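can u pls check wat happens w/ nicotinamide-adenine-dinucleotide
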Amino acid sequence: MEQAALFTIFGGTGDLAQRKLYPSLFRLYKKGNLAEHFAVIGTARRPWSDDHYREIVCDKIKDLNPTDEEKKDFASHFYYLSHDVNDTKHYDQLKDLSDKLDEQYGLQGNRIYYLAMAPQFFGTIVNHLKSQGILTTTGYNRLVIEKPFGFDYDSAAELNQQIRNVFPEEDIFRIDHYLGKEMIQNISVIRFGNNIFESLWNNRYIENIQITFSEALGVEDRGGYYEQSGALKDMVQNHILQVVALLAMEVPTSFSNSSIRQEKVKALEAIRRYSSEEVLQNFVRGQYDAGTLDGKDFVAYHDEPKVAEDSLMETFVAGKFLIDNFRWSGIPFYIRTGKRMTEKGTRINIVFKQLPVNVFNFEQEEAKGADLPQNILTIYIQPTEGFSLTLNGKKIGQGFNTEPVKLDFRQSAEVTENSPEAYEKLLLDALNGDATNFSHWDEVANSWEIVDRIRHTWDKTTPGFPNYAAGTMGPQSAFDLLAKNGHEWTWQP
Ligand code: NAD
């Protein structure tokens, strides 16, 4: 069960490392996946000592209630190296320290390089890992990298080329932390583990699919980053298209990394590549204005720190993807995501088709001619985790009046709290060499192709921003988008 490895974390003083990686490593330590034979080198520009680094690490795991002994032992595996990514001699120091720790802890040459830094440094780092002989020949060398993977197809392809000059695809673990989330992983189980769903999972029975990733928060202090990315690149290119692929893919021959990847890539390839005209018909964008929610006032996006007063960056996207294959032809996959929406929530609604005839109509005088409510399968990803199914049942009493009933399953807070955090699962996957829950280059490339078309079309026109009040579910155009097909958003908080 114990895995021997050296983690080298580039950006070891950064927000991601402190908030996510150290607690996740500690959880793996508590579970015994990391025990005696592991070490962590944190590198970043700041001139920290090992002692100071260990104090920071201890501070970041305090919410996990370690005993003094656990804290001391865990932290003793951490080493700090002050490092400028552009300075070759720092890599020589890194090599010396890595080799020393390898021997000291019996790490068998197994190395995980975690790039928790801005992507512009990735190329330089991987080149130095190779040129300075840091890669081992005895164990494995795996590269874990964070989003964003490029800012369009061309930059992503260039970045990929730089990395692939050093690491083969099977050793590259591109993080999409949503793929580590329990309920995202559950999509496959709900589909492929239940005959009642998978046999209906196609355009004969499903009317439309809706994916919502809403955030109640605004841009906070990330204005600088967000002004470069916007909702389309921040959310749609990666997380949302990954979810579309999981929902749309064919049944893999086995639940293995390569079969799943193949099917996901095929699904992404089948997503229609829109012309500019089609983009304008099928995608809408928004930017939040000032607004009030639950008695609290919020400022407009363009008044947030580090955001241009006349910013044209979108904080909201809604759109319709079409998948041109046998299973999905004609079925809209609606997506929406945004900041400063009414409520934080990630959920998927699978809306099944109307029955051909409502035979109960004649019993319900007031509802004569009306359709029965549609069956809806909802998958709750966060903050609650679970799923529900809306069915029609008989209303108790005389006659055959119907009413919708909901079969509802939510994971208990206790189970959710004790379940592994996304980063913990992904780190363990990387230790096990299992890339199922990471993005393969072919997936990234397809996603950029799709998103670039939207971006290029939008860049040619000037949006009328701001166009939705903070605390709402986005601009009117996001509702009109569904209404013109006779659909509506199932989730309307
Ligand atoms: P951060 O700015 O907090 O940390 C950046 C780290 O890089 C710091 O440790 C800094 O010292 C180091 N660094 C910067 N320039 C350097 C140089 N020239 N030489 C050596 N070290 C240098 O950033 P972060 O929020 O931790 O994000 C890191 C990466 O993870 C980014 O690519 C980001 O997009 C991605 N990411 C972060 C989060 C998050 O929750 N923070 C979530 C998803 C993805």
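The mean pLDDT is 95.
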